[in-house]
Amino acid sequence: MDVRTARSRTRQGTRRAGHGLPRLRITRGLNAREEGQEMTALKARGVRRTFEAELAPVRALRGVDLDVARGEFVALMGPSGCGKSTLLNIFAGLDQADEGEVFVDELQVHDRDENWLAKFRRHHVGIVFQFFNLLEGVSALDNIALPAILGGMRRKAAETRARDLLDLLGLGDRTEEVPSVLSGGQRQRLAIARALVNEPAVLLADEPTGALDSEGGVEILELFRRLHGDGQTILMVTHSADVASGASRVVRMRDGRIIGDDDDGQGNNDDGRAAGVDVMADAPAQTS
Ligand SMILES: Nc1ncnc2c1ncn2[C@@H]1O[C@H](COP(=O)(O)OP(=O)(O)O)[C@@H](O)[C@H]1O
Ligand SMILES: [Mg+2]
Question: Where is this chain compositionally biased, Basic residues type (predicted)?
Answer without folding.
Answer: 1-18
